[in-house]
């Protein structure tokens, strides 16, 4: 999709890009190979320079340079070529005024990582900073501001694809869990209905009563948030290709079964399987009574 992107040319927005596609100029090389004027005698030299510079950046896999060249609203186009450089992440917090991050999960080409407050959370900035493309759901609004406020000095990605806004742009509306259900990859039954408030209750139970069962359920919930993003990103990317009538092959959609063995092994190392539904129901009842 990147080589179909002409919005890196000064003065070319969505309408002029669609006009180029309609004229049969659908890829960078087709623009460069034209002997006649494409945009205008004034624009064409700079346009060709911009395309050549982008081509060099793509060959060098310089995501930062490409992200600077392409408008932020079009950064989703980078995902197809840089999926292996992406990290999918999500955070939970303690729900207090300062919003301390309690659990942060990363999922990437090398597997997954979990960071816990008062255990290994200090290692998060370095781990997240190793990946140039960040993918989140509402992370630009919530997750990253919380992490920046907590750590102070925090890395910046070359590009950040926030699926909340990307999905909405191409007709996929609602929260992450709703989109998972609508697109056909819901969570296991014991995680259905678990939300951010429950994450606060589970962390509180872990801290106050040293409940490893609560920690296990909290980590599992957060890990699913990160892992499900990879499937959603591919589904949304393919939806965008269809919406733009782009003659590009769809991305392979990630199936979480490929990683669930490792997830289960990690969770069992935290605590044995328990009665998750009963635990969460009791915490909700106690919170309601205390409120």
Q: How does this structure look, described?
A:
With 291 residues, the chain is of the alpha/beta class. The protein has two domains: 2-60, no CATH class; 84-290, 2-Layer Sandwich (Nucleotidyltransferase, domain 5). It is built from 13 helices and five strands. It has helices at 14-22, 28-33, 44-59, 63-69, 79-82, 124-129, 139-151, 163-169, 176-183, 196-209, 212-243, 257-270, 276-290, and strands at residues 86-93, 101-108, 111-116, 133-136, 159-162. Helix 10 packs across helix 13. The model has no long low-confidence stretch (mean pLDDT 93).
Which outline best applies? Answer: elongated
User: What does the largest sheet look like?
Assistant: 5 strands, mixed
Q: What's the domain count? A: 2
Oligomer: single chain
Instruction: Return Rg in Å.
Output: 22 Å
> What is the N-to-C succession of helices and strands?
HHHHHEEEHEHEHHHHHH
- Which strand order do you get reading across the main beta sheet? 3-2-1-4-5
Category by helix and strand content: alpha/beta
Show the helix and strand layout.
Elements: H1 14-22, H2 28-33, H3 44-59, H4 63-69, H5 79-82, E1 86-93, E2 101-108, E3 111-116, H6 124-129, E4 133-136, H7 139-151, E5 159-162, H8 163-169, H9 176-183, H10 196-209, H11 212-243, H12 257-270, H13 276-290
Parallel strand pairs: 1-4, 4-5
Antiparallel strand pairs: 1-2, 2-3
Q: Care to give the gist of this entry?
A:
With 291 residues, the protein is an alpha/beta fold. The chain contains 13 helices and five strands.
């Amino acid at each position: 999709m990147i080589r179909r992107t002409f919005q890196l040319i000064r003065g070319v927005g969505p309408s002029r890009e669609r006009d180029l596609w309609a004229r049969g100029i659908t890829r960078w090389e087709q623009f460069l190979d034209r002997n006649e004027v494409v945009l205008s005698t004034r624009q064409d030299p700079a346009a060709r320079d911009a395309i050549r510079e982008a081509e060099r950046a793509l060959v060098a896999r310089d995501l930062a340079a490409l992200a600077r060249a392409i408008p932020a609203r079009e950064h989703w186009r980078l995902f197809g070529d840089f999926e292996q450089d992406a990290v999918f992440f999500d955070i939970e917090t303690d729900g207090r005024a300062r919003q301390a991050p309690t659990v942060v999960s990363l999922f990437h080409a090398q597997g997954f990582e979990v960071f816990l407050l008062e255990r290994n959370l200090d290692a998060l900035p370095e781990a997240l900073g190793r990946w140039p493309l960040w993918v989140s759901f509402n992370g630009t609004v919530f997750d990253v501001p919380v992490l920046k406020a907590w750590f102070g000095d925090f890395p910046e990605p070359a590009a950040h694809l926030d699926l909340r806004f990307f999905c909405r742009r191409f007709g996929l509306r609602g929260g992450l869990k709703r989109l998972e259900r609508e697109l056909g990859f819901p969570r296991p039954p014991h995680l259905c209905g678990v939300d951010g408030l429950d994450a606060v209750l589970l962390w509180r139970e872990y801290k106050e009563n040293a409940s490893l069962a609560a920690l296990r359920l909290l980590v599992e919930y957060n890990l699913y948030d990160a892992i499900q993003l990879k499937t959603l990103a591919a589904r949304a990317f393919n939806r965008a290709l269809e919406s733009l009538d782009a003659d590009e092959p769809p991305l392979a959609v990630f199936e979480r079964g490929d990683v669930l063995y490792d997830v289960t092994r990690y969770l069992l190392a935290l605590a044995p399987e328990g009665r998750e539904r009963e635990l969460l129901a009791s915490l909700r009842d106690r919170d309601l009574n205390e409120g």
